[in-house]
Specification:
The chain is an alpha/beta fold. The strands form 3 sheets. It has a 7-stranded mixed sheet with strand order 9-10-11-12-13-14-15. Strands 1-2-3-4-7-8 form a 6-stranded mixed sheet. Strands 5-6 form a two-stranded antiparallel sheet. It is globular.
Length: 286
């Protein structure tokens, strides 16, 4: 097995929304805001090469939306999904599986693209199986008013129409040790219904793709919860459970949304679980 970090682009979001009830005077120490109160956010994905399978975890924002849509998110940087795959000698046609942690637009947007004539939308990965879970899929196609703006039908319906969609089996446990894709899954319901957090055994370590359970290193303290979360108190409970295990098992936390840190570790302190170290992917695995 080989893992590759895949940078799909960067954007900005309102810092207050990203930190909920935490005052700006505190959160800006780790996540400084610009004059519009926006902080820098990454859309880092992960590629797993395992035998004949090439599994992509999440897909970023994509490029099919209108200029008006993108203008709300202050895109910055030069990364794209295609150039990042090409850096390792791959292209979209090589991907066998696309694992979607959840269906918010910044995680699934790159899964769907316009055809060459821009007359209809189609899967960007024509040879891949798309993986979600039944609970979250129903949650996304019948969205609540709070999340409706994050679940865009143009990102979701074409996957179902393609016939390439499959669901990961849920056995009722919060941590599934081995899924159909060969890695474990931590299920979290605070941010959205049945968000899936992949837990991958790699070179004697466990690397965890944190998605929106832990967006950045600045979100490690338990009360630092995004206002986007539909069940913030549950997020706090899930973080407490997960971070305690991360300390005990010495997990490597792969940060999807931290534009400036790829991987971190955590430790127990007198104030609770806090940041231990940050690393680049290459520092650990190359």
């Amino acid at each position: 097995m080989t893992l590759y970090p895949i940078e799909t682009g960067n954007f900005k979001l309102d810092g207050g929304a990203m930190f909920g009830v935490v005052p700006k005077a505190i959160w800006q120490k780790t996540n400084p805001a610009d004059t519009a109160n926006k902080i820098e956010i990454g859309m880092r994905c992960l590629l797993i090469e395992d035998g004949k399978r090439l599994i992509l975890i999440d897909t970023g924002l994509g490029n099919k939306q209108s200029d008006k849509f993108f203008s709300h998110f202050s895109l910055w940087g030069n990364f794209t999904l295609d150039t990042s795959l090409a850096m390792y000698g791959f292209c979209k046609e090589d991907i066998t599986d696309v694992f979607l942690t959840h269906l918010h637009f910044d995680h699934v947007g790159g899964a769907i693209q316009w055809n060459k004539e821009r007359t209809f939308l189609e899967p960007a990965f024509k040879n891949a199986t798309f993986w979600s879970n039944a609970n979250h899929w129903q949650w996304a196609i019948h969205p609540n008013p709070r999340e409706k703006a994050s679940f865009l039908s143009e990102n979701i319906q074409p996957i179902q129409d393609s016939g390439q969609l499959k669901f990961v089996a849920i056995n009722g446990e919060q941590i599934t040790k081995t899924s159909e894709l060969g890695f474990g899954i931590f299920y979290a319901d605070g941010h959205t219904e049945k968000q899936m957090i992949p837990m991958i055994k790699y070179k004697g370590k466990t690397i965890v793709f944190m998605a929106d359970l832990l967006p950045t290193v600045g979100h490690i303290p338990l009360p630092y919860v995004m206002s986007f979360d539909v069940r913030p108190l549950q997020t706090m409970s899930e973080k407490e459970l997960f971070l305690a295990k991360a300390v005990e098992e010495e997990y490597l936390l792969f940060l999807q949304h931290d534009a400036h840190h790829e991987i971190c570790t955590v430790q127990n302190t007198e104030r609770g679980v806090r940041l231990k170290n940050t690393y680049t992917f290459k520092e650990i695995f190359n």
